[in-house]
Design brief:
With 267 residues, the chain is an alpha+beta fold. Helices cover 45% and strands 12% of the residues. It has helices at 66-80, 85-98, 123-133, 141-150, 155-165, 173-184, 188-199, 212-226, 231-247, 254-257; strands at residues 3-10, 15-19, 29-37, 138-140, 170-172, 210-211, 251-252. A hairpin with a 4-residue loop joins strand 1 (3-10) and strand 2 (15-19).
Length: 267
């Protein structure tokens, strides 16, 4: 746009282009519109209406932080793959506004092959819940339910875990977490492997070490919930692992209990 033209609205409703240097008021012409027109012939082109707003980049103020916020939000949505995007988005921006842990997975993942049904729960989503709720130790049922729904997870899955653990209004998070790991796995061995992979501070793909005291607590709890693993067997497993733990500064890793020499964690 580099040529200024004057457009006159005639009494018959038609537009007529006048060269800038020849502008004049003549009888029958009521309205002048001044705008930037291209060098090309304007005949046959659609002319803007007199009351139609015209904007430029100088008139629209874009908050400087907006592009990055939208970029991070888009990446988070792609990684997390929520089933209900609107519900998840509301939870995302609420957490962002309040400075809370975002309901975002660390990486894109698919449901694990060991899941009996496609419940939607994955190790990645369970890790998000652990980050959000573990600092509280004991969580209210309503708080757990809210975080569960924000991740668009099926209510029946949570209800089943609550039932198995016979939890009430006050839920010991680490026990709920252990049962959730069990719901993802086909057996107690895979459940404890999932526990290690989620709780570890090691990089992804690393040894997945966790404190042996935590392993002992959660393994014993899941074995007792199972009902078919006796205390003698539990003690035998822990006694065997203690030898490795002593050499690993009090840590245990999946490689230790997946060893052929280690007694099976379950029957």
């Amino acid at each position: 746009f580099d040529q200024t033209c004057a457009v006159e609205l005639r009494t018959d409703g038609c537009y007529e282009q006048q060269p800038q240097k020849q502008q004049r008021r003549s009888e029958g012409f009521k309205t002048f519109l001044h705008f930037k027109a291209p060098r090309d012939n304007l005949q046959g082109s659609t002319m803007p209406q007199p009351d139609e707003p015209m904007y430029s980049s100088q008139q629209i103020n874009i908050p400087p932080e907006l592009p990055d916020i939208l970029k991070q939000f888009t990446k988070a949505a792609i990684r997390t793959q929520p089933k209900d995007v609107l519900q998840w988005s509301a939870a995302y921006f609420r957490a962002l506004s309040n400075g809370e842990t975002l309901p975002v997975k660390e990486r894109l993942e698919m449901p694990t092959a060991t899941q009996k049904t496609d419940t939607g729960l994955t190790p990645g989503l369970l890790k998000v819940l652990h980050k959000q709720l573990s600092p509280q130790g004991t969580v209210q049922f309503s708080a757990l339910e809210q975080k569960w729904k924000e991740l668009c997870l099926p209510q029946e899955q949570m209800d089943e875990i609550i039932k198995v653990g016979t939890f009430s209004d006050n839920i010991e998070w680490i026990k709920f977490f252990a049962l959730a790991c069990s719901s993802l796995a086909g057996n107690i061995t895979q459940a404890m492997k999932t526990v290690c992979e989620i709780l570890t501070s090691d990089p992804e793909g690393g040894a997945a070490r966790i404190d042996f005291a935590m392993f002992k607590e959660l393994y014993t709890y899941l074995a007792q919930i199972d009902g078919e693993i006796g205390q003698v067997h539990i003690d035998g497993v822990l006694s065997y692992l203690q030898y490795d733990v002593d050499k690993q500064e009090g840590m245990v890793m999946p490689r230790n209990f997946l060893s052929q020499d280690c007694p099976k964690l379950g029957n």
